[in-house]
Amino acid sequence: MVYNRIVIVGAGLSGAVIARELACAGYRITVLDARDHIAGNCHTIRDEATGVMVHVYGPHIFHTNDAEVWEYVNGFQRFMPYKNQVKTTSRGHVYSLPINLHTINQFFGKTFRPDEARAFLERQADKSITDPSTFEEQALSLVGRDLYEAFFKGYTEKQWGCSPTKLPASILKRLPVRFNYDDNYFFHKFQGMPENGYTDMVGQILDHPNIEVQLATKYRRSDRLDAIHIFYSGPIDGYFDYEDGRLGYRTLDFERFHFDGDYQGCAVMNYGDASAPYTRVTEHKHFSPWEEHQGSVCYREYSRACGPDDIPYYPIRLVEEKALLAHYVARAEREKGVTFVGRLGTYRYLDMDVTIREALDTARHYLPRAAARGHMPSFLEKAIAC
């Protein structure tokens, strides 16, 4: 029996980074994953017919202001320059997102300067909404009804399966309005794509003599094994076998198709009209612009409620879910020898850089406590789920 063995549930970014850090500190690590591959939802694989690097569970674009995280990922994979330039089709026209000076001028048929566009949107915005609490109120207070209905209303209804009047304003606060012609979707200092895909990167992170990976292996709470500690990155409600109910998620269905040539001329094309049944089309060869491929692999993306056998993508976090989450968090805090990590373990939407940052912090939090035989909390203070 190995007495210094740590079990990590999940071979995605959270599990891989924690495993690597603790393995380098001398611990024996067993990583379990229910799927037959590593890297979780950022799993990538080459399409045999075209050679295109496909983001199997939808596109993942790395962007961060965290210099240490950027240096960390580049230690396992060379990141190539990549700018995410999202387009959207609405009412028979194609526009750039996020809303920028070009979008505003094109949509309204104007030639505004930045100051003129800012003043114009101030007049469009609903200033009677002083404290927006819903997605719709936030949009109306920022850009007014015309832009809201063209770019956000239909897309949001499809993405979340409910009216924007039922969603919190915080969802839209992540989307800026720019009064210049910058169409870079993200504003972070470091942006890029791993040259050989995320799965290769995660494989490099897990490549350590102290790490054993077991795929197609489900973990259950009763399987305490012989671990001195468990880091759990699966669904927090799943850890308790959903005994008190399931937390709400949205899942995605992908309609994959090949195209001989360039299908849409960009990596991501949103569809803002409610009449289009899908939210967006992604063309995966454009996620690797340093490569050249004649053929193309595309996904039409459909969002719907997540069922028991589906892959959870986006936590809903509405009122009922938050109440159930608080219940599961209270149960989790009574567990001994388990720390809940990552997107599913803490029931939050996390970008990849934040996931890696929290994984690094978790490992660094654990090491001195383990050496002193101290207590490792169920959640890091800054990552408490509710």
Straight-line N-to-C gap: 37 Å
The total strand number stands at 17
Major β-sheet strand ordering = 8-7-13-14-15-12-16
Task: Tell me the major beta sheet.
Answer: 7 strands, mixed
Could you describe the 3D structure shown?
- The protein is an alpha/beta fold and 386 residues long.
- Helices cover 30% and strands 21% of the residues.
- It contains 10 helices and 17 strands.
- The chain has helices at 13-24, 67-74, 101-108, 114-124, 135-160, 198-206, 236-239, 319-333, 342-345, 352-371; strands at 5-9, 28-32, 44-46, 53-55, 62-64, 79-81, 86-90, 93-97, 190-194, 211-214, 229-232, 249-260, 268-271, 280-283, 295-305, 314-315, 338-340.
- Strands 8-7-13-14-15-12-16 form a 7-stranded mixed sheet. Strands 10-2-1-11-17 form a 5-stranded parallel sheet, covered by helices on one side. It has a 3-stranded antiparallel sheet with strand order 5-9-6.
- A hairpin with a 6-residue loop joins β3 and β4.
- The radius of gyration is 22 Å and the shape is globular.
- The two termini are 37 Å apart.
- 40% of the residues are buried.
- The mean pLDDT is 94.
List the helices and strands and how they pair.
Layout: E1 5-9, H1 13-24, E2 28-32, E3 44-46, E4 53-55, E5 62-64, H2 67-74, E6 79-81, E7 86-90, E8 93-97, H3 101-108, H4 114-124, H5 135-160, E9 190-194, H6 198-206, E10 211-214, E11 229-232, H7 236-239, E12 249-260, E13 268-271, E14 280-283, E15 295-305, E16 314-315, H8 319-333, E17 338-340, H9 342-345, H10 352-371
Parallel strand pairs: 1-2, 1-11, 2-10, 7-13, 11-17
Antiparallel strand pairs: 3-4, 5-9, 6-9, 7-8, 12-15, 12-16, 13-14, 14-15
